[in-house]
Amino acid sequence: MQDTTSTYKMQEVLELSVEGPLIEAPNFDDKHAGECQFDISSESSGDSYNKIPVPDGGYGWVVVFSSFLLNFCTSGASYGYGVFLSYYMDSGKYVTGGTLDYAAIGGLGFGVGLLLSPLYNYILIKTSVKKLIILGVVIQNVAVLLAAFSTKLWQVYLTQGVFISVGMGAICFPNTTMVAPWFRKRRSLALEITVAGTGVGGIVFNLSIQRIIDTANASWALIAQCIISSVLSGVAVMLIRTRRKEVQENSDAPIMVFAWEVFRYPVVWLLILWVCFTMLGYVVQVYSLFSFTISLGYTSQQASVVSCVICVGIIIGRPLVGYASDKFGAVTTAAFCHLTVATLCYAMWIPCRNYATVIMFGLFEGM
C-alpha cells in the first residue's frame, strides 16, 4: 500500500494519539452554519482514545533528526537571503534591479510555496510523503544552482524567488506532519528539536554565505548552498518513515484536499488575517535587520553576526515558547509574544543607533 496521507488525516493523528477523550472532526451542518459543533465522547475508559499505538520514541527520534535536517536546509537556508539582499543592492550586479525588486524576490521566495499548499496536499494524496519531499528537494536545489548562473534580473525572480519557494513548500508541507504521529508525551520536545534546525541552519548559512561572498562571489555562495542542501536533504530523505498505515487502519475520516466548509466561520477568517499580519511582520524583521545594521555604518560581517544572533534566539526561544504554550495556553502565549515584539520594535529598533542594541534586539526578536 502506498504511503499516502493528507493534512486532514494528520490532524486526526494528533487527536487520536492524545491521552484523553476522543474529539471528532467538526460537524459542518447547514442548519447551524454560524457555529462549529464537536462530538465529544464521555467514554474515558478503554482504548477509545488510543486506537493508534504510539511508540513515543524509538525510530521516531530518527524521524526527528530527518525533520531537523529538512528544516536546516529550507527555513534555515532562507535566512541567508538577507546576505544576498545586501550584496545585490550594494554591488549593483543587476543594473535594472532596485530595492523593491530584491525585496519582491525575497517575498516570492517566502510566499509562493504557501499559496500552493492545496496542490501539495493533492500530490501527497496521490503519491507519498517521501516522493513529495524528493520533488521539493530537486526543485529547490536546481533553482539554487540556476540562480548561481543568473545574469539577468528576471532570472533571479524565477530562481531565487519563485522556484526556490515552490521547492521549499513541497518539502515543508509534508515535513510538518511527519513527527507528531511518533510521539505522545514527548511530542512537544520532539517538535521543538525539529524547529531548532531552522536556527542552526540560519547560523551556518549566514556565516558561510557571507564568508564565501567576501572571498569569492555570490555565485560560489549559491553553489555551496546547493551542495550542502542537496547532501543533507538526501540523508534526510533516506531516513524518512511515516505512520500512515496505522492512521488509515484506525480512521474513517475522508481524505480532503481542501475543506471549503471552514470558510463559513468568521473565526477562520480572523485566524487567516492574524497569520498574514504576523508573517508580514516576521519577514520584514528577518530580511531587513541585516541591511539595517549596515545602514548604521557597520560592515557586512558584523551584519551577518546580527542575523546569526536572531537564529540563536530561535534555538533558545522556540522550546521556551512551546513549553509556555503547553502551560498557559497557545492564545495567551501568542498574545504575550506579540505584545513583547511590538514593544521591542518601538523601544529598541526605532531608536537604535549602536551595534550592541542591534545584537540584543536580534536576540530578543529571535526568541
UniProtKB/TrEMBL annotation:
Pfam families hit by this protein: MFS_1
Keywords, sorted A to Z: Membrane, Transmembrane, Transmembrane helix
Source domain of life: Eukaryota
GO molecular function, one term: transmembrane transporter activity
CC terms in the record's Gene Ontology section: membrane
Membrane-topology descriptor: Multi-pass membrane protein
Parts of the chain that traverse the membrane: 59-82, 102-120, 132-151, 157-177, 189-213, 219-241, 262-283, 303-321, 328-349
SUPFAM superfamilies cross-referenced by the UniProt entry: MFS general substrate transporter
Location of this chain's protein in the cell: Membrane
Entries under InterPro entries matching the protein: MFS, MFS_trans_sf, Proton-linked_MCT
Family matches, as Gene3D superfamilies: MFS general substrate transporter like domains (1.20.1250.20)
Primary location recorded for the protein, binned into one broad class: membrane
Family (UniProt): Belongs to the major facilitator superfamily. Monocarboxylate porter (TC 2.A.1.13) family.
PANTHER family from the UniProt entry: MONOCARBOXYLATE TRANSPORTER (PTHR11360), TRANSPORTER MCH2-RELATED (PTHR11360:SF315)
Name of the protein this chain belongs to: WGS project CCBQ000000000 data, contig 00072
Organism: Kluyveromyces dobzhanskii CBS 2104
